[in-house]
Amino acid sequence: MQLHKQFKQKASYNTQMHIIHLDDQQLFQQGLKLVLQKAFDNVLLYQFKTNAEALVFLNQCLATNIKIDLIITDFNHPGPNGLYFAKAVKELTKQHKIIIPIMLLTMSWQHPQLVKATQQGIFDWYVPKSATEQDIVYLIKQRPFN
């Protein structure tokens, strides 16, 4: 997956970019944190290992008007999967009349259920974990965070 030519410039935004990351693999959490901190000046990354933890946090953010700019989730983790999580997020955001883009970052590449969910707009991106850090940063930079 080669989506970029070169992305060495660090992105800077006027306000903090708040990202929720849901993945049960600690090594992958740490790696993504390093990638995002290297690529973006003002990123605040909130990492969770279960849907329940992430949804509680998202509800708290919505209740206190903290704007979440992006959600990155894996598909396979303990408890309900990432598709269930994304559907719950879409329902919450619909109730609050906001949109939060969701990136599915997973090893479950080309899973028919996930391809269909992406086509239906549940996920904004469906990205394999084998993607390069430049590819992930490139995709995130395509979204305005204001």
Your description of this structure?
The structure is a single chain. The chain has 146 residues and is an alpha/beta fold. The chain contains 5 helices and 5 strands; from the N terminus they run βαβαβαβαβα. It has a 5-stranded parallel β-sheet with strand order 2-1-3-4-5, with helices on both faces. Helix 2 (51-63) packs parallel to helix 3 (82-96). The chain is globular and about 35 Å long.
Structural class by SSE content: alpha/beta
Shape descriptor: globular
- Give the CA-CA distance, first to last residue: 28 Å
Order of helical and strand elements: EHEHEHEHEH
What's the helical proportion of residues?
40-55%
* Mean of all residue-level pLDDT scores: 86
Radius of gyration: 14 Å
Largest sheet: 5 strands, parallel
Strand content: 15-25%
Strand order of the largest sheet: 2-1-3-4-5
Number of separate strands:
5
Uncertain segments of ≥5 residues (pLDDT<50)?
1-13
Summed up:
Helix 2 (51-63) packs parallel to helix 3.
Which features does this protein show?
single chain; 146 residues; alpha/beta; five-stranded parallel sheet; 5 helices; 40% helix; globular; disordered N terminus
List the topology elements.
Layout: E1 17-22, H1 26-39, E2 43-48, H2 51-63, E3 70-73, H3 82-96, E4 102-106, H4 112-119, E5 125-128, H5 133-141
Parallel strand pairs: 1-2, 1-3, 3-4, 4-5
